[in-house]
Design goal:
The protein has about 450 residues and is mostly helical. Helices cover about 65% and strands about 0% of the residues. Among the domains are: about 130 residues, Serine Threonine Protein Phosphatase 5, Tetratricopeptide repeat, CATH 1.25.40; about 50 residues; about 80 residues, no CATH class.
Length: about 450
């Protein structure tokens, strides 16, 4: 169950060509690039690689409707036959809560079993759990160690994950040059996600001059490599934004559609938005919701938040606070900070759940600590008013100062109001705390 590489997407000179692809080292991934009928035939014969590949395709909608239950059964059969990739993918089912109750600890156990059998996929997945503290204690050094093990085992995706650690300075000093070299190594191995990461450096100006044209060229190379779906979505985003190319929303929709058809969550989500807003395509709310739901079911937090807002606002669907809460929680459970904020607001307001001020303020403060501006503003209100927490004007002012710096239009008024009842020393303490603040993410 190949996961998306978690990047802002994130390059170097356009020196590599994707025209001559190296063979994939993972037989399951290689089989997934074959026609569905061929994969189905092998699965029907009880071939473990065929069953695992078909299950992957069922999980992301490339074999018809998404069917997690059928995928789970296929993984279990292949795992019983000793297929390491299937064991890893069973861990993925527990991690995502697909066909089983979500259980990060059980996911970690399966990943370790598969990693012991040499599955690079499982090593990467275990590293991701350590990076985000899911089912295990957050430990960036352990995460990096597992990514490096996967790289040593020959997994073509691992270099991108190691590069991300250097990009963000996780367990190693931040080093854009090192990240760039690792992304290039991934691209040289024929990995579309390597090109995606490289292009992102130029799109966002991370360690290189911002250059949309170079970014687009790299994304295009990624569409010719193995795992082309994510780069396709980003080519579409470049057309939609007129970045490195003349703005063309119709062309953007074409790229989103190609990406979505290959099971990419970003492509599905962006296609859903385009169909909802009539951007490059006629408005089709039913089809929009179908793509949005697919992306959400695959665990894409932006789609889950979008659905939550749709049901809360009654945008094209009847108002349903219960469903809104469900989707906000789905995003929050993945560690998405905007999801944590919206789930916190739901508890504060009693949207689809019994109001719980303490739980609500705890969630919005979690988002605030991770740098979410709305979370910082709302946390300030909690501490100013004593909603769910004890009144603490120093802490409240700290959060309002941070929210104002992040662009909140309401925070400046809160700052003036709360300062009126504070001593000079307390104001100085709050200001110093805001200055020293470093977001967790």
């Amino acid at each position: 169950m190949r996961r998306l590489v978690c990047l802002i997407p994130i390059l170097l000179a356009v020196a590599t060509s994707a025209s001559a692809l190296e063979p994939l080292k993972n037989p399951v991934e290689a089989l997934e690039e074959r026609p569905l009928a061929e994969v189905q035939a092998l699965a029907d014969k009880g071939d473990p690689v065929g069953m695992t590949a078909l299950a992957n395709m069922l999980n992301n909608g490339r074999a018809g409707d998404i069917d997690h239950a059928r995928a789970l059964a296929l993984y279990q059969k292949a795992a019983a036959a000793g297929n390491a990739e299937a064991i890893a993918d069973l861990g993925g089912m527990y991690e995502m809560g697909w066909g089983v109750a979500q259980d990060y600890a059980a996911a970690a156990d399966d990943y370790r079993k598969a990693a012991d059998l040499g599955a690079g996929d499982a090593m990467i997945a275990l590293g991701v759990l350590y990076q985000h503290g899911r089912g295990v204690t957050r430990d960036y050094a352990q995460a990096l160690a597992w990514y490096e093990k996967a790289r040593a085992a020959g997994d073509v995706h691992a270099a991108t994950y190691v590069g991300n650690m250097y990009l963000r300075g996780r367990s190693v000093p931040k080093d854009y040059d090192k990240a760039r070299a690792l992304y290039q190594a991934s691209a040289d191995a024929g990995n579309g996600n390597g090109y995606l990461a490289l292009g992102g450096l130029y799109e966002f100006g991370l360690g290189v001059p911002k250059d949309d044209a170079k970014a687009l060229a790299l994304y295009r190379l990624g569409t010719q490599a193995h795992f082309p779906a994510s780069p396709m979505a980003y080519v579409g985003l470049m057309y939609a934004g007129g970045k490195g190319v003349a703005r063309d929303e119709v062309e953007a929709v074409k790229w989103y559609s190609r990406s979505a058809a290959l099971g990419d969550q970003v492509g599905m989500y962006e296609l859903g938005v385009a169909l909802e807003k009539g951007r490059g395509a006629d408005i089709d709310l039913a089809l929009s919701r179908a793509w949005m739901m697919k992306a959400a079911d695959l665990g894409y937090a932006n789609a889950q938040l979008h659905l939550g807002n749709m049901y809360h606002d009654g945008a094209g669907v009847p108002v349903d606070e219960g469903l809104a809460f469900k989707w906000y929680k789905a995003a929050a459970d993945q560690g998405d900070r905007a999801g944590q904020y919206m789930l916190g607001v739901a508890f504060l307001k009693g949207w689809g759940v019994a109001a719980d001020s303490a739980k609500g303020c705890g969630l919005v403060e979690t988002a605030a600590l991770r740098g979410d501006m709305y979370g910082q503003e709302t946390t300030g209100v909690c501490y100013m008013s004593g909603t769910g927490v004890a009144v603490d004007k120093v802490v409240a002012l700290k959060w309002f100062i941070l929210a104002a710096a992040g662009g909140s239009s309401y925070a400046p008024a809160h700052i003036e109001a709360i300062k009126a009842g504070m001593s000079t020393n307390d104001i100085a303490r709050a200001t110093a705390q805001a200055k020293d603040f470093k977001a967790a993410d």
